[in-house]
Amino acid sequence: MSRIKSIFIGFKRIIIWFFKVIFFVFSSLYKIFFNLRNSFLDRLRFSIHLKLMLNYIWTFTLVFLVQSLVMVLGFYLALSNDMFLSHINIIKESLIVAAFICAGLVLLLARKSSKKLIEPIEQMNNKVKNITIDDLSTRLDTSGVKDELKDLAYTFNNMMDKIEYSIELQNQFVSDASHELRTPISVIKGYTDLLDRWGKDNPEVLDESIDAIKNEAEQMKLLIERLLFLARGDKKSSHIEKNEFELNGLVEEIYKETKLIAPNHKVFLGENLPLYVRADKNLIKEAIRVFVENSIKYTKNGGLIELSLEYDEPYGIISVKDSGIGIDKKDLSRVFDRFYRADESRNKSSGGAGLGLSIAKWIADEHEGKLTVKSEVGKGSQFSMWIMASKGN
Q1: Where in the sequence of the chain do the CATH 3.30.565.10 domains occur?
Q2: How much is the mean pLDDT over the chain?
Q3: DSSP 8-state secondary structure symbol assigned to residue 264
Q4: Are 110 and 52 contacting, i.e. CB atoms less than 8 angstroms apart?
Q5: What is the value of pTM for the model shown?
Q6: Interatomic CA distance for residues 75 and 219, integer angstroms
Q7: Ranges for all domains in the chain classified under CATH 1.10.287.130
Q8: Do 202 and 335 contact (CB within 8 A), yes or no?
Q9: CB neighbour list of residue 254: distance below 8 Å, 6 or more residues apart
Q10: I want to staple 316 with a disulfide (CB 3.0 to 4.6 A). Which of 8, 171, 218, 275 is the partner?
């Protein structure tokens, strides 16, 4: 009994091994077959429509060959040698008829299904052809497509949204820069015309013209420097050198400078905790100077300007607070936009181009920090830079 059982187990193992070998052979042939097919199709510059049809035909060919082999093997095993040989012609005819019927059905199915698959791609292609730099508003229709094509359409539309937004920003930037440069150029031209006509013989007019031209030239220089600064930042070509230093020492340094340049204001140094940061010292100082310059511009003589450094783990918070004219609530969300200036009263008193806070924001972003603003009309403003810091020993 045990001998029969062992023979049965051995026979079972042989059958399993045999089918494993058959499966391995067929799977290897399958991989080779489809690799050759893909290599062949990829090398030819056919349309996707034709490639899909060829895909169906290749698949049909493989399936039909396997099916024919199984059918012939089945007939051979089911019939005796004499019966198999006597029916060989019928078997051949059956296989040929089945091949033609299958081929016809496959071609019909391939044509219809490939056309249905390609149609949305052709529609996308036609729409994309109409996109120009002068009209970036065209978007792909996502209502009629599904699956990967819908994902592709969404991705393309998102890309076009970003491109259109970037172009709008660029155009706005050029327009604003041109506008800001036009004013000082007009002033300089006006004074030079005045001097050319008769002002050069009048000492008072000559002095006034020279002062005005110098001031406007200085404003143009500052504007161009800030434009170049932002342009380098946009191109990621700005040099940032980060080193560890005492942030409270920098705040105290800015406080002393502010007292010198704003003798008509009450300048105070509030809490100034000993903190250490790893950052570009010159850039951080530039950002805080922007806050200080704004406070001086928008705070009347005798008004308060207070600097402070606090700690809210893991950030050091450098703040510049003033008792100036303040900013309307509706403008707070846009004060860091390029060339944005809140209202006419601020425009008239500043004479700036509205780039300082944009530069400060860029500096904060490059240091993985952030800027915040609190303000109330008539009561003053507080600008703060949050930057990663650690407490001193």
Answers
A1: 244-391
A2: 76
A3: T
A4: yes
A5: 0.57
A6: 97
A7: 149-234
A8: no
A9: 285, 288, 289, 292, 307
A10: 275
Structure tokens belonging to residue 138: 């065209």
The answer, yes or no, to whether residue 260 has pLDDT greater than 80, is yes
Position 92 pLDDT exceeds 50: yes
Query: Which DSSP letter does residue 300 get?
Result: -
Residues 6+ apart with CB under 8 A from 152: 124
CA distance 290 to 360: 7
Question: What is the separation, in whole angstroms, between the first and last Cα of the chain?
Answer: 87
For residue 368, the 8-state DSSP code is T
Class of domain 149-234: mainly alpha
Cα–Cα dist 296/254, whole Å = 13
Q: Where are the alpha helices (DSSP H) in the chain?
A: 2-43, 48-78, 81-86, 88-129, 147-197, 203-234, 247-261, 281-298, 344-350, 356-366
What are 218-252's pLDDT values in tens digits?
878 877 877 777 777 777 777 788 999 999 999 99
Encode pLDDT of 4-55 as tens digits. Answer: 666 656 666 776 776 677 667 667 766 666 666 566 555 554 455 565 666 6
DSSP-derived letter for residue 371 is E
Cβ of 187: how many Cβ atoms within 10 Å?
17
Task: Write the DSSP string, 80-133.
Answer: -HHHHHHTHHHHHHHHHHHHHHHHHHHHHHHHHHHHHHHHHHHHHHHHHHT-BT
Architecture of domain 244-391: 2-Layer Sandwich (3.30)
